[in-house]
Specification:
Length: 591
């Protein structure tokens, strides 16, 4: 099957056929085999038909242009790099491809219509366009509309592919003003419509290894799937690192995608209103934003998103690792450096999520939920681990089913809750100079319920905590100490619900029970804090909150000694909370 790299759409207008053909340079009608015979690789043959070529003031003859478009780029690369012409028109290029592997045969018919290059000077075309592309096979077909671009630098493209000598390693513009009308793909069980695609500019520098050699490396790796050639793997990794720094692009915009098909006998639709890939730069994989996602299976369920964004990934640390890797990379090296090969992903976000799907554990029930917004932000990676994180969500809504047998749902409904509208946030960061971890916030809240938020400071958090040596990291983890902890509770209705349920069980009036429960809470606090100077004041604050006189409660705990409460202290406190009394100062306020 012929495949054209997405980022080389314009190059396809001139020599798509030859780029898509196997790595060996062959003439039309020659037969090509990919890899040694013993690997049972596919036997691929192709023919190219170019009925006519119309040129004006071209530095290359019609016959040479025909040979180039038939696959003989290497033989004419120098002439193509210096091509000059007022115009070149190729009404049709038809390619027939036949691939045979064992008993299986694959046939494809590929047609390019109305290839036009204009104002070509010294290997740079002022404009290039293609009227359309169609592909037909026994299993599928596709048709794409017109494609066009400006300032198509044929010479730079050939240099990028290593087909001509390069005099500069600097980035060059390969083309500008890319525009594709979109098209359709159809198969037996699915049909897709792809919207228009546009991009302002694509730049690249020559690769240190040609894509043809890269393809040969990949094939060599595939030839021995059960074995790893350390030398070849090392070579491939360095080429991959080079590839990651070879491109610069503007934003690429796709105006929608829609597919219809069949899912277990039920009609299915998949739609994306639009998609934007941010500009690519050396070592940085760009953000990808998707708008208006909707997936629907008739008679089954539906999921949708207003928008979703995969934030950029910084590959610079991975690139540096690969560039400085040993010549031979074996399985042991890959395992040892697996964490260092994790790119620094900045996170993920989405908004307007809704779903209504069958409950996989109950055929008679459905799961209906929505999330207004979600965001995950990651930063400051150390050995593949983000040391700054901020994750939050709001508008998490769901209806609690009446007939659910889930114990948690039964308890919530018993408290009078029929719907949940919640939010949460988890945020924290490691500070290297002070060797501390600041837990800025760990909170959960519910509309008409309240908010519980915890923040704190962890000491003794050295860089060893993120060490690649698991024993060193474990020892560092055991050495952590809790310096401070703050608890903030805001009551927006949860206590009323709890009191209503509790009073119903004992046949008491809810308001009559409040002072009773407040007194019990006060007495418990004073008893536990016996010997602490401000025990009485702490009890009064808790009483005020539980009784409903105040709606917010703040409790602060500060370790008396540096660096703070050790892991052993905290483990002892699980069994005996009073063991911490002499080791911390406790303050409480209420509003």
């Amino acid at each position: 099957m012929i495949r054209t790299p997405n980022r080389l759409q314009v190059f396809a207008c001139v020599c798509l056929v030859s780029v898509a053909l196997p790595a060996q340079q062959v003439s039309a009608k020659d037969k090509t085999k990919a890899g040694p015979a013993e690997t049972a690789a596919a036997d691929i043959s192709y023919t190219v038909s170019i009925p006519t070529i119309e040129t004006e003031q071209s530095s290359l003859s019609d016959a040479v242009l025909t040979e180039i478009l038939s696959g003989e780029i290497t033989e004419h690369a120098d002439g193509l790099a210096t091509l000059t012409a007022d115009s070149i028109l190729v009404p049709e290029i038809h390619v027939s491809i036949r691939s045979v592997r064992g008993e299986e045969e694959y046939v494809a018919e590929l047609t390019f219509s109305d290839l036009v290059l204009e104002d070509v000077t010294a290997g740079i075309a002022g404009s290039v366009s293609l009227g359309g592309v169609s592909l037909a096979t026994d299993e599928a077909s596709s048709e794409f509309g017109a494609m066009s671009a400006s300032q198509f630098n044929i010479a730079a493209m050939l240099g990028f592919y290593g087909l001509t000598p390069t005099i500069s390693s600097e980035f060059q513009t390969l083309y500008t003003d890319l525009s594709l009308e979109g098209g359709a793909i159809r198969a037996d069980d699915i049909a897709c419509e792809i919207g228009a695609v546009s991009g302002a500019e694509f730049r690249a520098r020559p690769l240190m290894t040609s894509p043809m050699d890269l393809l040969a490396m990949a094939r060599a790796l595939e030839d021995e799937p059960g074995e790893t050639d350390a030398d070849l793997t090392g070579q491939f990794m360095r080429v991959y690192a080079d590839f990651l720094t070879a491109f610069e692009t503007s934003d690429i915009v796709v105006e929608g995608l829609s597919c219809t098909g069949d899912e277990d006998g039920r009609p299915m639709t998949f739609e994306i209103a639009g998609m934007t890939m941010g500009g690519m730069s050396p070592g940085i994989y760009p953000s990808v934003t998707m708008r208006g996602l909707n997936i629907q299976v008739e008679g089954d369920g539906e999921m949708s998103l207003d928008a979703a964004t995969f934030k950029p990934m910084d590959m610079s640390a991975v690139i540096s690792l690969l560039e400085n890797a040993p010549e031979a990379i074996d399985d042991a090296w890959l395992e040892e450096n697996s964490r260092l090969m994790i790119p620094a992903m900045e996170g993920f976000a989405f908004s307007g999520f809704e779903m209504d799907i069958p409950d996989p554990e109950d055929d008679a029930a459905r799961i209906a939920a929505s999330i207004a917004a979600f965001d995950l932000t990651l930063a400051n990676y150390v050995n593949g681990i983000p040391t700054r994180m901020d994750m939050s969500a709001e508008g998490i809504k769901t209806t609690l089913p009446e007939d659910s047998e889930d114990e948690t749902i039964v308890q919530l409904r018993a408290m009078g809750l029929t719907e949940i509208d919640a939010a949460f946030r988890i945020a924290g960061a490691w500070d290297e100079p002070s060797n501390t971890i600041d837990f800025e916030e760990v909170s959960i809240s519910g509309v008409d319920l309240g908010t519980v938020a915890i923040s704190g400071l962890i000491a003794n958090a050295s860089e060893d905590l993120f060490s690649l040596n698991s024993n060193l990291a474990l020892a560092a983890g055991m050495g952590l100490a809790l310096k401070s902890l703050d608890l903030n509770i805001n009551d927006a209705g949860l206590s009323d619900i709890i009191l209503t349920v509790a009073s119903g069980e004992v046949g008491q009036d809810p308001e009559a029970m409040r002072p009773i429960m407040a007194g019990i809470a006060q007495g418990t606090v004073i008893s536990m804090m016996a010997g602490v100077a401000n025990a009485a004041q702490l009890g009064e604050v808790v009483n005020s909150f539980v009784s409903g006189k105040t709606k917010s409660l703040q409790i602060g705990i500060l370790a008396k000694d540096d660096p703070g409460l050790s892991m052993l202290d905290l483990m002892q406190a699980e069994e005996d909370p009073a063991s911490l009394i002499g080791k911390v100062d406790v303050e409480a306020t209420t509003e």
